[in-house]
Known about the structure:
By secondary structure, the chain is α/β, with parallel strands linked by helices. The chain folds into two domains: 2-271, LarA, N-terminal domain (Rossmann fold); 308-361, Alpha-Beta Plaits. 28% of the residues lie in helices and 22% in strands. It has helices at residues 14-26, 58-70, 96-103, 130-133, 169-173, 177-191, 226-237, 245-252, 286-291, 297-305, 321-325, 350-354; strands at residues 2-8, 37-42, 75-80, 106-109, 114-118, 124-128, 136-146, 150-152, 195-205, 213-223, 261-262, 311-312, 331-333, 338-340, 360-361. The strands form four sheets. Strands 1, 2, 3, 4, 7, 8, 9, 10 and 11 form a nine-stranded mixed sheet that branches. The protein has a two-stranded antiparallel sheet with strand order 5-6. Helix 1 packs across helix 2. The radius of gyration is 19 Å and the shape is globular. The two termini are 37 Å apart. The protein binds iron/sulfur cluster (SF4) (2 copies). One iron/sulfur cluster binds next to helix 11. Residues 310, 326, 328, 330-331, 340, 345-351 line the site of one iron/sulfur cluster.
Amino acid sequence: MTDIAIEKVNDYDIEKVKSSLIKMFDLTAFPTVEGKRVLIKPNILSDVPKEKAITTNPVIVEALIDILKDKGALDILVGDSPGLQSPTFSAKTSGIRGVIERKGVRFEDFAKNNRPHTIYKKIKVPMAKALDEVDVVISVAKFKTHQLMMQTGAVKNMFGLVPGLNKSPLHLKCPSVEEFARLIVSIFKESHTDYAIIDAIMGMEGAGPANGTPRKVGLLISSADAFAADYAEAVIMGYEKKDMPIFLEGEKEGLTDESTYNYPLLTAKELVISDFKRIEAKKKSLFSALILPFFSRYFEMRKAKRRKAPDFQDNCVKCHRCIDICPAKALSMGSRHPEIDTKACIRCYCCHEMCPVDAIKITQ
Ligand code: SF4
Ligand code: SF4
């Protein structure tokens, strides 16, 4: 039996969040933390104010730290590394650093402390050194859409263990949705995540994970199986299983089993948000579903290029972030906004994720 706890929580009142999490942990095989070192991995995609609903709300992190301390955790680390990380990354604007300092736990900047891991396709990639120092790993994700993977969640959140600019070139190595999902799953496996929490009190719909619209969902989701927590998230968003590439890869690898899912509190199906603005999954042709997987990188790249290229708008403030992160070097600054070489672009949407003013549109 895989338990998934879903609880209605209307706002970020710390006491309400804490009591809900305690109740949820009691029902979902929360790991023993007494005398152990624990890593909390919130989503700090970019260090921006919590009201934007891009990052895990600091109240969730604070409530979790309090609970871990009450349960006798020996040491607590909180860390992340945004995709385009400034040398002064502090997690201050998101409010998470304030919680870390107030609670006297350790802040881990993964860009400063990491070591190479060998993952999918024998790719060598640096990952947070903190993983070697802790006994328990907890993913604390945000309820958000994602242009490429349809949803962000507890499994995808662990991509942040790969520091800063080391992330975007991985899109070049794994350009299709399926391959990139496989890569995310292999990074997740390396993380040995023990427990997953999804902050869905305020979520994000539309052009997630960075340029969507905050949406009140009023829920917390948790499970010892991160894929199961993500499954519940996706169902609430209105997705079907075929639209969940990361989940499908996890299931293929035997990391989760939907037939064992049990909801001791609310069920995902009763909470589906009918008007939630999802990213529409591209329909698969029979050819792409059955034949393409047997071919090589050439077809993977062709498959990626069938997605729409990003479209740059005049509200661009020429910050260069998209140009700096583009793994295909497909962007150069034009007179009003970046110009795109659509032949070089692999449709990874890293640029869209990094734009601070929503000047990059992806039409599905
Ligand atoms: S232009 Fe954007 S979508 Fe295209 S490869 Fe560069 S970062 Fe990816
Ligand atoms: S499109 Fe966005 S990320 Fe790119 S230069 Fe303009 S404002 Fe910056």
